[in-house]
Amino acid sequence: MAGGFSRRDFIKLGTFAGITVTLARLPLAHAIEVHSGLGASGWMDKEGQARYRWDAIRKVTGQKVFARDFRAMNLPGWPKQQAHAFFVKATQADKVFEGVALERLSKDLQPDRVLFHEDMERDGITVPQPADLGADFYGQYFLTPKGTTPPMLGHPVALLVYSDFDKFEAAKRQLRFDTEFVLYGKTTGPKPPPNFGAARYVRIAGADPKGEPEYSPLQDAVIWGSLDGATAVWPPADSKGMFVPQSVMHKHRGGGTGNRDPKQVADETYEPMQRGMAAAAAIAQDIEAARQNPEKIVLERHGYSPSIDPSAMEPDNGNAWYDASTKTLHLLVAAQSPYEVARVAAFMVKDNKRFPVEHIEILTGTTVGYGSKDHSIFPFYVVAACFYGDGLPVRLANDRYEQFQMGIKRHSFDMDVSITADRKTGKFEIMKGQYTCNGGGRANFSFSVAQVGATAAQSIYYFPKSDLASIALSSRAVEAGSMRGYGTIQTMTMTELMVDELAEELNLDAIELRRRNALLPNYPNTQGAVQLGEPRLVEMLDKAIKHPLWVDKDQAKAKFDAANPGKKYGVGFAQVQKDYGTGADTSALVLEFDASGNITMRHCLQEIGTGATTAQQVMIQDILGQAPETVEFGVTEFAQLPLVSNWSPYTTTQDQQDKLAENPYWVPFLLPAMSASNSVYFIGFGTRQAANFLLEHSLWPAAKAIWSDGPGGGQIAAGQVSLADLRAYPGGLGGAGMSPIPFAELARKAHEMGLITGVALHCFSRWEWARGSFDIPGVGERTLPVDALAVRYGDKASEALKQRMTTGGYDYLKRSKIVYPPVQRNNAGVTTYTPAACLAELNVNTFTGEVEVMRLHSLIDPGKIVVPALVSGQQQGGLAMGIGHALMEELPLYEDGPGNGTWNFNRYTLPRAKNVAVWNQTVEYLAPLSDTSPPKGMAEVVMIPIVSAIGNAVAHAVGKRFYELPITAEKIKEALA
């Protein structure tokens, strides 16, 4: 294959827009995630427990590489000479862009090429507009056109390309802080893109929390709004006229109905939304009545959560080479979802006449992005740049100043929230909130983040009535996107701070107030959906209220304050629950074993630093008694599963879904994104289904045959042994008092009996798993939580069975029936949650305002833990991120913010070890309720409760409450003045 890689090194993604696309990890020995071969020995101990990460040895011996580490000369088949490029960016977003002053660069630093929007437009190089993501998801232009106002601060206006690195580096340094290089014309005021959307979630319970509600999004509808400037326009509460909400006309993750006829949308949505607005009006009247009722309390507060930088270790970067002779685009990128980059890149270049592309070869390295590399525009900037390298590969790589200036940020949120409660009982009655997130100058997932933030705002509490509106605005600020937390760290922090103040007003213990209002099993969320399993919220609160930090907080405060003049001691508590999953979660893999007992797994999961590849293998070990010997991760093509999709799981209507599902190869979505803490439960669901399938249909029959060997039916005959009695032990299976059988012996027997020895499957969840029925040879009809299934038969299977294995060497079993979750389930918002709580002990220096975190204790319900050390790592990292959000991390939005190009870590403060009580962190993990409890996604939730726990602890320390984050020393000093 072109590029110096073998065909084994690349995997074919498929054909998009007539362009074939292949994917590989970085070359040779470093391609450990797609084609990793035999795993490192010794990573699992004799007891079947992971001693360290499966890829640990490679990491610590320098074989963990990032895309940033490579130049063209390191890539086989690429030209040895490397071109470099950098952007010139706008630091003013209220004036017309007119050009650049090249004369400010000395003659010896002039670029080989200067690119403007007009050059790219002439050549047909335009921003990709994939229909499934919605209009202008990646913005309208790569570079600001001359004569127009940049849509945001930091938006590129020109690209300078150099073939000489020394000239490139010198020129880049010279222009870094030059405010006169970009030429501006008349002042126009900011010209950001249109606002991104508005959605509202209204619910009024029936007579019983578990009964049918009067109105809920799940039962009735999400209310979609339009925007008049920064003001949401909702459907009128009367039935006259036609209302076409702009927000429902666009496709996006988590809602909307797609680009459809406005009249059709209005006809379908108006009546239920009109009823929802009537319910909202009734809630507003109830709040007003509560204000006049001395038996009620209405707490209303405004809060603010700042823009934050992900601070991922690897800044955005990429390297691309356009080989005109073969019409091949070679692309090396850092991305959380390489498949998505490849797909969108193909659509970006499909109609280009000057630079025709017939094939794309994409290389990816390991990366960690905390969301900053999820659907980023940066890889497509790299694609655009490479066409102007005069045959040389072009490298674009942000330094830290540039990453601050144009990298994706966490959204800032303005929040207006009211909570109504009964003074006598402390029971919450109404929650009303408006959550306005600032998405900056590029759409990305802003509207989705706003929606998720609103649906998470209830935190752990049950509200009989709720009206939660979310608005996503555009602005001239730097683009915000799907950063870790996805809107929930902003909204739940606000709720938890308010609950603490309510407890003070009601003269109740703050944890006791939470106990009285916590969601119970089968209680619905504010969308009307019941979460999966037992919430265990009260159980966690019972543990927290008995913890010495909480029990002794007032005595400890008196003692500390007396002993430390000028310092004030405080303890704070908060508990939240964070959803995990996307509402379109999938998993796909192949799992098989040979007659010698060697297990092979090919899996869709990609490693982004969480240790997910280790966890998937441990899941196999836990079920089958043996981990795979050979694994491949990041697989995007499964010959055994020739599936097709329309890639629109959120926007396909119910009728369309039912029609498409008649094709036994159709699935709503093919492969998962590595986001939303979805790996251990959702992606791991497929792993567990595959292992259990082999356990039931291969290893169990083989075990019965072995245990039946002997006079009178062998050792199993005198007892009653079932599949449910089977237990894995390190190296094999046993149970029910039977002799343990080594896995190799089971595998040999399964092949001798011609049983199923391999399975390929695909799963899909829309907050509920799809269920398909399959006629399995030798087994019969079975209904399973999978929507595609293929099997492989053992070495001694009949010729008739072997002749069926015509699809990638497997027998693809066409489903006889499929039940996909209703499209209406999208309105549920979420149903899978992980709860987490935190007790924070700190002191405040009343002279300087500085906060010192002294001790932290966490409570988490992670479900059945797969790899304890990985959970611990997530917990410790999450605490640090949460402390940064609470006390120090903040980016101004506009002219004095990162878009001006002067921000780096000399100005942006991150927590250090001394700030996070690194030696005084304790944690209690709730034991799973049963052996069959699933694991829960927790990568995001662990950073959230610490934020409000610190805020509540500061209030306990100094008697002042802060609703605008971060709680800096300056704010504390001002409040105490």
From TrEMBL:
Domain of life of the organism encoding this protein: Bacteria
Matching PANTHER family: ALDEHYDE OXIDOREDUCTASE MOLYBDENUM-BINDING SUBUNIT PAOC, XANTHINE DEHYDROGENASE
Annotated Gene3D superfamilies: Aldehyde oxidase/xanthine dehydrogenase, molybdopterin binding domain
Sequence ranges assigned to domain Aldehyde oxidase/xanthine dehydrogenase second molybdopterin binding in this UniProt record: 549-637, 806-916
UniProt organism field: Alcaligenes endophyticus
Ranges in a coiled coil: none
SUPFAM superfamilies linked: CO dehydrogenase molybdoprotein N-domain-like, Molybdenum cofactor-binding domain
Protein name as it appears in the record: Molybdopterin-dependent oxidoreductase
